[in-house]
Amino acid sequence: MMKRIVLGVLALVVIAIAVIAAAWVKFDIPREELVAKYASDASQFIELPSGAVAHVRDEGRPDGDVLVLVHGSNASLHTWEPWVAALGDTYRVISIDMPSHGLTGAVPNEDYSVSGMAAFTREVVQALDVGSFTLAGNSMGGAVALNYAVSYPDDLDGLILVCAAGIAREEDETSSGDASFAFSLVRMPVVGDALTLVTPRFIFEDATRGVFVDQSVVTDEMVDRYYELNVMEGTRPATFKRFATPRAPVPDETVRQLEVPTLVMWGDKDPLIPVSVGERFHALLPNSTLVIYENVGHIPMEEVAEVSAADVRSFMEANAARMPALEATVTLEDDGSLTVTGPQSGLAPLPDADVPDADVPGAEAPEGDAVVEEAAAAEAVEEDAAGEGAAGPAN
């Protein structure tokens, strides 16, 4: 009888250990399984020259001005869904899963540096045949966007930094809270190595809840998505390689030289990158606007989606309005009329040429010199319009 009791107790202990282990240990999830669950009808999987296969969504208005979105560390393009929904009526919105993230996952060149991600982003926009665009980045994605602006400034119409990394911090600008603790675990010796095999879901739940002030934004589905995408096959080793890659901040003097119009957006309760960093970004950038959201954390595009998207719309509209007029050609036709060809954005209306109606009997065509003078006047109007559009905005 005693032997049976002992064996029964041992069996219960073994079952308990198995249950605990099942709750803690998460084996890799096949990529195909997660693609089926988290890809959408807008998802594209683009093979890039570097060999990576990038998960990208290209949504919104196809002929609209282009907005490209880069997410933060351990996140995915899903974090931008509220902005896509709010801005897609006007803009072409492209969101990208970065290397070691989302459905992109590990990449063949194993370059998980910020500069490598900037180059990856450029490969994507070139593959999609995007001309100039506005680039937005959150957290790590802000550092990617900043590095992109330094490396490829001619590509950008505008820059949006949302609670962004990328510049050196002051001694008192430290991270705090559950989200900070979760990220610090990854960097710990031994513990970090163990997490490549044993990845508790609660770490992702604590980290996710830790970046929001409004806890109602965090759902079980959101936590599951963060958790599952981060244990996709190949992602955990890539993530730890990324964390081991040093991040060199962009020097302040380099930031001061960036002329691209920039919108700096920050939550005043951001626990990972204090709002003072946003204020310093604004002070360094020569052509920037700063928006601070009260009682908001690290992810304003989800926590205050409507308000932050409206601010993006206002920024892009204002930026488009102050862009210089593009070159157009004024042609003098045989009948004495003036024809404008080529882009006309920002051009003032041309004065009507005083050309008589051909159907009116007895009408006389104007002298050739008069038509040339009208063409010259039209070109002067065009040059004045271009000059006004080229004036930059005040900070």
Task: Give your account of this protein's structure.
There is one protein chain. With 395 residues, the chain is α/β, with parallel strands linked by helices. It is 43% helix and 14% strand. The chain has 15 helices and ten strands. It has helices at residues 2-24, 31-38, 81-87, 114-127, 140-151, 177-187, 191-195, 201-210, 220-230, 235-244, 252-256, 275-284, 300-303, 305-321, 368-389; strands spanning 43-47, 53-60, 66-70, 92-96, 133-138, 156-162, 262-267, 288-293, 329-332, 338-341. Strands 1-2-4-3-5-6-7-8 form an eight-stranded mixed β-sheet, with helices on both faces. The protein has a two-stranded antiparallel ribbon with strand order 9-10. It is globular, with a radius of gyration of 28 Å. It starts with a helix and ends in a 6-residue tail after the last helix.
Q: Characterize the overall form.
A: globular
Query: Structural class of the helix and strand makeup?
Result: alpha/beta
Q: What sequence of helices (H) and strands (E) makes up the elements?
A: HHEEEHEHEHEHHHHHHEHEHHEEH
**Major beta sheet summary:** 8 strands, mixed
Query: What order do the strands of the largest sheet run in, or round the barrel if closed?
Result: 1-2-4-3-5-6-7-8
What does the average pLDDT come to?
A: 81
Cα gyration radius (Å): 28 Å
- Residue fraction in strands: 5-15%
Taking the alpha carbons of the first and last residues, their distance comes to: 84 Å
